Amino acid sequence: MNSSTRVKVARTNKSSLVSLICVIARLSSARAFATVQFQGGKSPLNQIKMSSSTSSTTGDAAFSNKSPTNNIPTFDGDEKAKATDFANYFCAYSQLYHQKQMLTDHNRMAAYHSAICGNADLFKDKIVMDVGTGSGILAVWAAQAGARRVYAVEYTDMAKHARRVVEANGVGHIVTVIQGAVEDITLPKSDWDQLGLAPEPNDSPSSTRVVDIILSEWMGYFLLRESMLDSLVRARDTFLKPTTGIMMPSHATMLLAPIFDEEERRAQHNEYAAAIEDWKEFAQTTQNVYGVDMTVLENDFDREQKEYYVLSSRWAELGTGCLLAAPCVVKELDMHVCTVEDARGVGLALGQDEGSGAPFDFDIEGRRHEDGHGMAGSSVSGFAGWFTVDFKSRTDDNGRDVAPQVPNPAYLSTGPEMGYTHWGQQVFHLPAAIPVLADQTTRIQGTMEMMRTKESARLYNVRYRFTSSRRKAGSGRDEGILMKGEPMELVYQIP
Questions:
Q1: Would you call the peptide bond into 68 cis, given omega within 30 degrees of 0 as the criterion?
Q2: Model-level pTM?
Q3: Phi, then psi, of 202 in degrees rounded to 5
Q4: Mind telling me the catalytic residues?
Q5: Closest CA to 146 of 169, 174, 172
Q6: Are 118 and 124 in contact (CB under 8 A)?
Q7: What pLDDT digit, counting tens, does each position of 375-406 carry?
Q8: Cα distance between residue 134 and residue 422, in whole Å
């Protein structure tokens, strides 16, 4: 496989190195995040049995990374839930190493810079809020673009660094850094009179919805991971002017495509097989040398390794040559009107843990090389998911004809066509590849569901239900069927 097809893959998440710094905090407040165990049937995604590399004598419920109402802990969690949330999630974001990783993602930086500084007329004299300001760079750009006041909200101690960045760039008189969860903060009382903060005429006189523009870089892997969208929605409903306010980004889209990625898929399976062989040797040695039979644990060990190597998604930087068909949209969000319910997953029934799923239907053409021999992509290795966001004018009924227009729209994609972004793509490798044959069309048809895990409101399971079939090239979708496979159901966790 050449470098234009697939650049690299990582087995750990974007905060993997930084997370080592948080080990003590994790151990003191919560056990490590669990990994999903695949089970057949129709178990709700958030009820799928979980296993963990560590254990707790106080039980799972004591350290669940969610509130009693299944929300993220910053919304209505108790102190124990918030401590767990900080250790497992926010801790990494308090490290400059992690911030630098995002700041050196130039596709990310260019999109936000264009959206803010490229629309200075939109920002001039406006009240702006940056949710999750981190290092404060978006807040600085907003001030440089002419904002009258910027509220830079940051939960972690990164707020201290943000204040220094703000002062060093000469915008301390414009940017106010507020440390705390956006669900808990209030705007400074002095600003109400000093800046003349006021809600829209049709809003309640006591309303706190006085912000003109909300900025945020809230997106996680495959868009929804980390569930920061919950906080953003609540910030919007609390602070943004309902008809004239602008969200940046304004829209988000999740995409899915089948991929050819056999080198990495087989590497994962080889590592899984090696782990199982290593266990067998260990069990034999323990029996021969120490007289203890450990084979009783073999099935549990096998499950753990399968969860990690086979049934967990992987971060990847794919090339466009990996894509076997055009991507399909599995979810779209309008940031001005989407709800916390929308953030809970993909393809779910309202208020339920599962649903009919988001449909996909791919036709993969088996084409020969120009010399007439073989094929370049000879199998479906799995699926890849990524997202795009837009920074454009409002399209919802409430604000389309009222809110100011965004004169210079901007766009960010985390797809293979963009090269490196720190989000990359999430790859879901199949346990066994599906052959793609020359002069035949392979059809992959099914649904995808995405749902928060039982133990964490910030992690997600993904379920694929699909069938594959092959037909003669050029035939209609229901004509010339040569093969139809059995229905498949696979459940993964995005770690």
A1: no
A2: 0.84
A3: -85, -5
A4: 217, 226
A5: 174
A6: no
A7: 445 899 999 999 999 999 999 999 999 999 99
A8: 16
